[in-house]
Specification:
Layout (H helix, E strand, L loop, with lengths): L10 H14 L10 H11 L8 H11 L21 H11 L10 H10 L5
Length: 121
């Protein structure tokens, strides 16, 4: 059977501990880090050489151009009826669902229920 290596790689933490001890003992100077200078130097690598020329702009435009024709949106006039007549809404609702929704209570159904009385009486 093969054995599983459960030991962690502690070289990085060991090296860091060694450097910290030697800095405290005065054997080694603490490395100076200039974050601003490093950041400014990194900007140089963030843009490729082709992007600094007009060919880069043309390549970017070609890469992001739509592959199909996109039609212009058309304005469709939708006149609003400002009368506010409820009968218009009722007729529209009947066009959508001519049979009515299930469970609708009509006047005839209420009258029939009154005539029959309540259960258990």
């Amino acid at each position: 059977m093969s054995e599983i290596n459960t030991e962690l790689d502690n070289t990085q933490t060991f090296d860091a501990a060694q450097i910290a001890e030697s800095v405290e003992a005065g054997e080694q100077k603490l490395p100076a880090v200039d974050v601003s200078a490093d950041y400014e130097a990194s900007k140089e690598f963030s843009v490729s050489d082709i992007d600094r020329t007009s060919a880069g702009a043309e390549a970017a435009a070609a890469a992001t151009a739509p592959k199909f024709d996109i039609p212009a949106p058309q304005e469709i006039p939708m006149p609003a009826d400002a009368q506010g007549n409820p009968d218009d809404f009722l007729s529209m609702a009947k066009e959508v669902n001519p049979a009515g929704a299930p469970g609708n209570v009509t006047d005839d159904l209420v009258q029939k229920a009154i005539e029959m009385g309540t259960p258990g009486s």
